[in-house]
Design a protein that fits this description.
The protein has helices at 3-10, 36-43, 60-73, 123-138, 153-161; strands spanning 21-22, 27-30, 76-81, 84-92, 107-114, 143-149, 165-173, 179-188. It is of the alpha+beta class. Strands 1-2-3-4-5-6-8-7 form an 8-stranded mixed sheet, with helices on both faces. The chain is globular, with a radius of gyration of 16 Å.
Length: 191
């Protein structure tokens, strides 16, 4: 069996390079090189990246490389608020080995990061709802997964507000070299 074709079918192809989503307060759009300073501003702050399993960005050059990867990957939105990028939201490939029960369905995993300066304002649930609508109504995905470390209750609250439910526990290997207790949450398209 050709697993490449199977994975492409299950992990639906994504290309958001020409997609712009608008909410009442946010514009979700593809990344641009001019966003490097905004990314660096929020990604260098202690406590932001660690909640997603990565260290604070050390330089604008490192942030530049991240923006280039976002642009090349064509699956991560920049979250723009009042003309400034304050976070990101990616429609990521999920681990098919961890969730083989979805092999006959089309899905993805979302992941997000928000500038600490904007926590607690309801912006991330607003962004996640927009991406859920896009994934279910435009891409016709069957489900979305979203993970969070057990200690990251803020991320869980975003997921819960958006209709996700805890699905299974997992251990996640972070970019920091640690293993963290995690939850995988599920949202199914009820069409």
């Amino acid at each position: 069996m050709d697993h490449t074709k199977e994975k492409a079918k299950v992990n639906a192809e994504i290309d958001i390079s020409n997609v712009v989503l608008k909410t009442s307060r946010l514009t979700l759009r593809p990344w641009k090189l001019s966003d490097v300073d905004d990314l660096y501003e929020y990604a260098k702050v202690d406590g932001v990246g660690q909640r997603a399993g990565w260290l604070p960005r050390k330089s604008k050059e490192e942030s530049y490389l991240r923006v280039v990867r976002f642009m090349e990957g064509k699956k991560t939105f920049a979250l723009e608020y009042e003309g400034k990028v304050i976070g990101s939201l990616g429609i990521e490939i999920y681990d098919e080995d961890e969730c083989p029960e979805f092999e006959d369905k089309r899905g993805r995993e979302i992941g997000y990061v928000l500038s600490k300066d904007y926590w607690g304002r309801g912006l991330m649930p607003e962004a996640v709802q927009a991406v859920i609508g896009y994934c279910f109504n435009e891409l016709h995905l069957d489900f979305l997964l979203c993970g969070h470390f057990a200690f990251n209750t803020q991320s869980w609250r975003v997921q819960e507000k958006c209709g996700f439910r805890h699905y299974k526990q997992a251990i996640h290997q972070t970019q920091l070299g640690t293993k963290e207790d995690s939850w995988i949450s599920l949202l199914e398209n009820k069409r």
